Each structure stands twice: as structure tokens, then as C-alpha cells.
């Protein structure tokens, strides 16, 4: 059965990027059984370059394991291809870049706080 054809048509695809669960362990058999993509035409998940990924994103929006799926996709090396948790490769690259920027910002802030603490000890 192809779930994609059993789901009601959405008026417009909504990019719902789930909050990463930070749990990138491989899916358990029970979790994998919940994935909607495992019951769908595989071609949906690999749209041609420049083609919209609406159908895949619509299915992912209803998937109960989307947060785990995104965590796995973001942690995968080499990077995974296709649509994962409603995100394209470009979406995931943007998420990772934002995470890296935030990590650098936090490291710089921590370094400044440590410098201030060192100066306080000298004074
Ligand atoms: S969220 Fe992940 S597991 Fe669920 S349908 Fe989308 S790609 Fe498949």
C-alpha cells in the first residue's frame, strides 16, 4: 500500500522542520515500522534537481518519527541524500551551518567570560 496516495491532499505543503531529537542512534525495528516513507514509492524521496519535494514533505509532516529521522540525517557521514524529515539536502546544510555558527558564538562567549575571570583574579 502506498501511504502517499491514501493521505488526504494538503492545501499547500508546509515545511515543518521538526526539532532534532539529538538522538541519532539507528532506528529500532519498532521505530522503523512507524516510518511513512517505508510504505511509499521510493522515487518520492529523490526529486529531480529543481523539482519540488512537496509530496515527500507532505508525508514527512505526518510522520511520527520525524524528529528522530532529522537527528539521524544531520549526524550521518557521509551526508544522506534525498528528503529526510521534510528537509532537502540544502535545508540540512543550512541547519548544520546555523548549528556551527551557534557553537562558535557560544565558544567565543565562553572564552570572553574566561578572560574576564582571569583578569579578575589578577586585579
Ligand atoms: S520523517 Fe523520515 S522516516 Fe518519516 S516519512 Fe519522512 S523521511 Fe521517512
From TrEMBL:
It is found in: Cytoplasm. Keywords: 4Fe-4S, Disulfide bond, DNA-binding, Iron, Iron-sulfur, Metal-binding, Transcription, Transcription regulation. Residues 36-94 form the 4Fe-4S Wbl-type domain. The keyword Protein transport does not apply. Its cofactor is [4Fe-4S] cluster. It holds the Pfam family Whib. Its main location: cytoplasm. It comes from the Bacteria. The keyword Transcription applies. Belongs to the WhiB family. This is 4Fe-4S Wbl-type domain-containing protein. The lineage of its organism: Bacteria, Bacillati, Actinomycetota, Actinomycetes, Micrococcales.
Amino acid at each position: 500500500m502506498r501511504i502517499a496516495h491514501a493521505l488526504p491532499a494538503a492545501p499547500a505543503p508546509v515545511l515543518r522542520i521538526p526539532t532534532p531529537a539529538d538522538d541519532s542512534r539507528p532506528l529500532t525495528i519498532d521505530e522503523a515500522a512507524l516510518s511513512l516513507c517505508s510504505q511509499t514509492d521510493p522515487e518520492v524521496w529523490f526529486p529531480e534537481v529543481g523539482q519540488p519535494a512537496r509530496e515527500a514533505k507532505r508525508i514527512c509532516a505526518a510522520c511520527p518519527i520525524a524528529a528522530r529521522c532529522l537527528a539521524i540525517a544531520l549526524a550521518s557521514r557521509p551526508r544522506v541524500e534525498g528528503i529526510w524529515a521534510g528537509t532537502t539536502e540544502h535545508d540540512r546544510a543550512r541547519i548544520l551551518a546555523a548549528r556551527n555558527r551557534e557553537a562558535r558564538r557560544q565558544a567565543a562567549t565562553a572564552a570572553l567570560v574566561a578572560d574576564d575571570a582571569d583578569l579578575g583574579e589578577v586585579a
